[in-house]
Amino acid sequence: MHITIAPDEHAAGRIAATLIGAQLLQKPESVLGLATGETPLPTYAELVRMHQDGIVSFGRATTFNLDEYVGLPPGHEQSYHTFMWRHLFSRVNIDPAHTHLPEGCAADMPAACKAYDAAIEAAGGIDLQLLGIGHNGHIGFNEPGETLDQGTHLADLAPTTIQANRRFFADEAQVPRQAITMGMGGIMQARRVLLVACGAGKADIVAALVTGLITTTVPASLLRLHRDAHILVDEDAARKLG
């Protein structure tokens, strides 16, 4: 596991975008695993700039997002589908047919989960998976527990996750209680993993990820077993690493 400490979240975003851009330059047909939330916003903004400057092309790339809320249609303001089109897809030259997100309103959730894993496999697997980390150590919506699911699955969101997502909705009652998420097995199968964490609020969980036990109660800690994991944090998030 490689650890990089950047001065701030904007520098972290530039570094992350540079790593993703390098992946696309080396392999234009790369399969990228993408994340949502506040953490990747500087990364996506920098990727858009790199595309506009002619440095990076998404023309041959394929993407699979980590997760999607259950019950929110793609056009919903807070769906991850809307998030990705607002912040990245509509601003680069990616083929819409090559972008994939789990179906949050699928009539048959188990079938939709199996189909998502099958689509990733058919695409050749994920070359580089971008991740954030929750305050409780979740990645995607793989919440802490005694066991973790291997494949894409329906996940109940932990109370702390619901509270953290409250700020995006008018009130807590509107926050979805479930999501479809890639499983830990799928994440660990990515050839490269890039986890970004920024801000003092992530310092405790970053310390647990890097120096604590490898345990399902901190799902992100399993990344220490990955063959090519890069942990990218800003100085605030790294303050408890010693």
Q: How many strands, what sense, and barrel or not for the largest sheet?
A: 7 strands, parallel
The appropriate CATH architecture is 3-Layer(aba) Sandwich
Number of helices: 7
Using the coordinates shown, work out and report the CATH topology: Rossmann fold
Cα separation of the termini: 17 Å
Provide the gyration radius in Å: 17 Å
Mean pLDDT: 95
CATH class category: Alpha Beta
The total strand number stands at 10
Strand order of the largest sheet: 1-10-9-6-2-3-5
Strand content: 15-25%
Q: Give the oligomer, counting copies of the same chain as homo and different chains as hetero.
A: single chain
Q: Helicity range of the residues?
A: 25-40%
Low-confidence stretches: none
Q: How many domains is the backbone divided into? A: 1
SSE pattern, N- to C-terminal: EHEHEEHEHEEHEHEHE
What's the shape?
globular
Find the structural class using helix and strand composition: alpha/beta
